[in-house]
Predict the 3D structure of the following.
Amino acid sequence: MPDRYAVIGNPVAHSKSPQIHAEFARQTGQDMVYERLLAPTDAFMATADAFRARGGRGLNVTLPFKGEAFRYADRLSEGARAAQAVNTLKFERDAIIGDNTDGAGLVNDLVRNLGRAVAGARLLLLGAGGAARGVIAPLLEQQPAQLVIANRTLGKAQLLAQCFRGGVEAGTYAALAGRRFDLVVNATSASLVGDLPPLPQGVFARDALAYDMMYGRGETPFLAFARGEGAAVLADGLGMLVEQAAESFFIWRGLRPDSAPVLKLLRANEE
Ligand code: NDP
């Protein structure tokens, strides 16, 4: 019997994770299957328990269950604790291990795939929700020169910054006027509804990279704005998706797949 894994979410039909993990398994010769698991919004734990009882070895967790998965795990990695969210569950014989690979996914995409150092960079993170929280600790580990969080609701950005003891500055969008950043990461859900966070003009430094965590929507309003403002490189979140999957695969199987051909394949499918 092959080992069983799945992505659990609601909705989950759109998830590219089964395709990504099937490629990783093929590449590394692992005998495993990876499914989609739709959980009713009020039954995450029962659905995860039933999957585990049927022999499931691990789950990727997507919206809206990352907070519940955090509470469901018996043991948490440092990354999951910092994020207060879990996107990877590993079922061991007597324990459920919770981890969060989203931040490592973003850093690996920036550094390896896009060739941009986070170390020493002036970094602006837009949004103060789950996606932003999940990437702050791994970004800080890279030692950026600055990490500023801008959010519509200032109090949420301030609360989030306080969790990271002085390494992070919080502010409004308006307060960004006159400042310049080398990396600008959109971790808001504005792109989901075709919206643009209210960024002032001039925040992109000459060689800036604009990164939208959203993917599969073509050029989002944020990326279009960045292009108009002269950002040198535009990137969507597909690379982050593949890289966080590679980290999960490593946690489960102890093997590091080659993410580059898988990202290339997904890009080709998009066209
Ligand atoms: P949350 O609902 O937790 O947070 C949403 C954030 O977006 C809040 O900070 C909110 O501000 C802000 N926001 C929403 N609408 C607007 C707007 N019109 N203008 C400005 N700010 C806005 O969502 P998540 O953090 O979970 O997810 C954010 C995005 O990240 C999603 O689009 C998701 O798809 C993507 N993502 C991508 C991943 C990948 O692998 N590529 C992984 C994880 C997430 P306020 O507090 O003021 O309401």
User: Anything to note?
Assistant: The first helix runs from residue 17 to 28. The domain at 103-237 is CATH 3.40.50.720 (Rossmann fold). The longest strand covers residues 204-212.
